[in-house]
Design a protein that fits this description.
single chain, alpha/beta, Rossmann fold, Four Helix Bundle (Hemerythrin (Met), subunit A), nine-stranded mixed β-sheet, two-stranded parallel ribbon, 11 strands, 52% helix
């Protein structure tokens, strides 16, 4: 390898040491094969070391080999890389524990590896204790049968190639007596955690002594690399091919069968007897070369396929493929890690706050913040969903419903009259600025209990009959006040339901808003016990405020039960306006009834009287004839016209002050007086009521709901009691799944940050 390639390989090895391969796909080579497929011999031939040969050896945990060329004498450092806990869950930062002193004699490696694997399989015991055992056994008394934690070998020397790979436990086809059938799936799952990643080069070992189709390692590799782009095949034990089957195995070397992008290779390792004779690594390589040179059909292969024979050619290809993969993926690794750090921090931030160091202080702070936020919302916030904005709509609906309870008086003699009565212009002018409620606003508004029963129109003759029946000792021309009071009380009876509806609707809005505020401030604290407790306290508190508001509204209804006002001018002004309004309606009805038979050639007393009536309204009457003319010189003043008509009719010398005297007395005038008085009083009382009720609700329920919230919660939660500290600690406990998730994410973040530091310092 060049210096640049060696530096990149060292960098990837350093990233592996952080444990970040749990989170990102780092380039690596994984040696995969069935048990007895010759993996151990292959590892020995690549690394130059001797592995333990006892039963069960090198099959219980991954063994990582980091090989690097060095001009210094050969050495091997054995360490334990702990990336998961006893239950197999990833740790935050992996632990790299050096296991024993540096080895300078290759003969000591197999014993050290055996002891290291024992330490991995027995995590409850101190790792150092396994360095002192006389003859450790891998087959008995272990806490774990397999582990994801690995033994790491850092080997360097003048005869060592630059290469890194991990030897995985061999796939198990079956278990013997006393074995655990679950180990078959366990090992397969362990192998899968490596080879399913797209940056894992699969070094697939296949023994030539066993039928190819019966070797499950190939099927597993093909499952995760169906196109063979990242699999390098290795045929082992070529000296044990059954007679007559040699050509079928040569098809792999020619890449004719199960073709792979990086081809199949074949290696020859020392047999058991050769190992007993203590062959050196150099002797093994020499014997391998002699085998492929002298043995048919390997020595008959075309020259272009000879490069796929022998261990040294395999090592060169592995080194080149790994180097190319690292060069291709390394630039994107930093971006991937940065992205994962950002995402992991976001995920941690999305979790509820962890239990605070001082739970009581934290609860007190949350309560204080909630109290301040409640006050701020009650004072009003400038957005559509504010509590004040949401209350305004039902208050406006309440006002409009109360306004519709105005007594439906008609100045006609019977309800079957064909005459219609338009709304007074002076009321339309007053209500031009009223807030309108759109259909869209109505969609989510509950109106149950808001509507009042419709009332039949009350004609003037009905009013006259009622006042006549009610007269007792009154002098002629006088009528009892009880008639007006009864009409007023009939109106007030319709006000109770809308007032109670407004109380309930404001309570509903306030309760929903308070629930949202409580959730906003307390939902991330603990498992929700504190939020639930405060929700109950606040709902009960608002319920008490609702009862106080309803009592105040009931008092207002009771007070309104007896007609009263000191706003005499307002009442008199409305009475005069309504009296003119009713009189004009009667006059218009009479004129309409007479108009078909009335001669239009000369003015009559009736038309003259109509003109006089026209002048009665203070709204229509000009200050003087001259002022009227000055306003519109082209218009004829109605008073002048009336006086002229009367003079022609035989009533000369009349003045403006004489005009009212000419009007005849309407028999229904007393009834019209009662109607005007009741209607005027309605305007006074209705406007007073539609202000007082929302004000009472605002004072008792809205503002009352936020008053002393801090003191209320402090008292109800007993935060000054002897058990307050422990209670708050209990409130602060987070759910087990949240705690586990937080620990998982924090460990992941720790690994990623450490990996970033490795990249920066490389």
């Amino acid at each position: 390898m060049s210096q640049q390639q060696r530096r990149m390989l060292d960098l990837v090895n350093g990233l592996h040491s952080t444990g970040v391969q749990v989170d990102i796909d780092l380039p690596q080579i994984a040696v995969v094969g069935n048990q007895s497929a010759g993996k151990s011999s292959l590892i020995e031939s690549i690394s130059g070391i001797t592995l333990p040969r006892a039963s069960g050896t090198c099959t219980r945990c991954p063994t990582e080999c980091r090989l690097s060329y060095s001009s210094q004498p050969w050495k091997c450092v054995v360490s334990l890389r702990i990336t998961t806990d006893r239950s197999g869950q990833p740790l935050g930062q992996s632990r790299n524990e050096t296991f024993g002193s540096t080895i300078y004699d290759k003969k000591e490696v197999d014993d050290r590896i055996r002891r290291a694997q024992l330490a991995i399989l027995n995590p409850d015991k101190p790792a150092k204790s396994f360095l002192n055992d006389d003859e450790p056994s891998l087959t008995e008394g272990n806490s774990l049968t397999f582990s994801k934690n690995c033994v790491s070998l850092a080997i360097s020397g003048p005869d060592v190639a630059d290469l890194s790979f991990v030897d995985l436990p061999g796939l198990i086809a079956s278990v013997g007596r006393g074995g655990n059938a679950g180990d078959i799936k366990l090992v397969e799952g362990l192998v899968t955690t490596y080879i399913h990643k797209s940056n894992c080069i699969i070094l697939l070992t296949v023994a030539c002594e066993t039928d190819f189709e019966n070797q499950g390692a190939h099927q597993l590799a093909k499952q995760y690399d169906p196109e063979g782009k990242r699999t390098i095949g290795v045929l082992t034990k070529p000296d044990r091919i059954p007679a007559g089957e040699e050509q079928s195995w040569l098809k792999f070397i020619r890449n004719e069968k199960e073709p792979l992008q990086n081809n199949w290779f074949c290696v020859k390792q020392p047999a058991s007897n050769d190992l007993k004779n203590n062959w050196t690594w150099q002797q093994a390589r020499q014997k391998e070369d002699e085998f492929f040179t002298a043995t048919s059909p390997w020595n008959e292969l075309e020259a272009m396929y000879v490069r796929y024979l022998r261990t040294k050619n395999l090592v060169e290809r592995l080194s080149q493929v790994l180097s190319d993969l690292i060069a291709k993926t390394l630039p994107g690794i930093q971006r991937e890690i940065d992205g994962m750090i950002f995402k992991t921090r976001q995920q941690i931030g999305d979790l509820p706050n962890p239990p605070p160091a001082n739970a009581l202080n934290e609860v007190a702070k949350l309560v204080k913040d909630f109290d301040a936020d409640t006050r701020r919302n009650i004072e009003g916030v400038p957005h559509k969903e504010g509590i004040i904005q949401r209350i305004r709509l039902p208050a406006e609906k309440f006002r409009r419903v109360i306004r519709k309870t105005a007594p439906p008086f008609l100045p006609y003699n019977n309800s079957g009259s064909a005459h219609s009565l338009a709304d007074p212009e002076f009321l339309k002018q007053e209500e031009d600025g009223d807030e309108e409620v759109s259909d869209e606003d109505d969609e989510d508004e509950s109106t149950a209990g808001l509507f009042v029963e419709s009332v039949d129109s009350i004609c003037v003759n009905e009013v006259h009959a009622r006042m006549t029946e009610s007269r007792s000792r009154e002098l002629p021309g006088n009528f009892p006040f009880v008639v007006q009071r009864e009409y007023i009380k009939d109106i007030l009876l319709q006000w109770e339901n809308p007032a109670i509806w407004l109380c309930d609707r404001v309570f509903q809005i306030l309760a929903e808003h308070t629930k949202e505020l409580v959730h906003h401030h307390f939902s991330t604290f603990g498992q929700g016990m504190l939020e639930q407790r405060i929700q109950l306290i606040m709902y009960e508190h608002l319920g008490n405020c609702l009862e106080a508001a309803k009592k105040k509204v009931a008092w207002l209804l009771k007070v309104e039960g007896e007609p009263f006002t000191v706003n005499n001018h307002y009442l008199a002004d409305y009475k005069e306006k309504f009296l003119v309004y009713y009189r004009r309606a009667r006059r218009d009805a009479k004129r309409k009834a007479l108009s078909p038979g009335t001669r239009r050639s000369s003015p009559t007393k009736m038309t003259s009287m109509a003109m006089v009536e026209e002048t009665r309204s203070p709204m229509n009457r000009p200050r003087s004839v001259f002022q009227s003319a000055s306003i519109d010189e082209g218009a004829v003043d109605p008073i002048t016209e009336a006086l002229t008509a009367l003079s022609r009719a035989g009533y000369p010398g009349l003045t403006q002050d004489d005009l009212p005297k000419l009007l005849g007395q309407d028999d229904m005038e007393p009834a019209l007086e009662i109607m005007a008085t009741v209607r005027a009083y309605f305007q006074v009382s209705y406007k007073r009521f539609v202000d007082n009720v929302p004000m009472a609700i605002d004072y008792e329920l809205v503002r009352g709901g936020e008053e002393d919230v801090f003191q209320l919660l402090w008292s109800k939660l007993e935060l000054d009691g002897p058990g307050a500290h422990q209670m708050c600690i209990d409130y602060a406990q987070e759910a087990a799944q949240v705690a586990d998730r937080r620990e998982e994410l924090e460990k992941k973040l720790e690994r990623l940050v450490l990996a970033t530091r490795r990249l920066i310092n490389s």
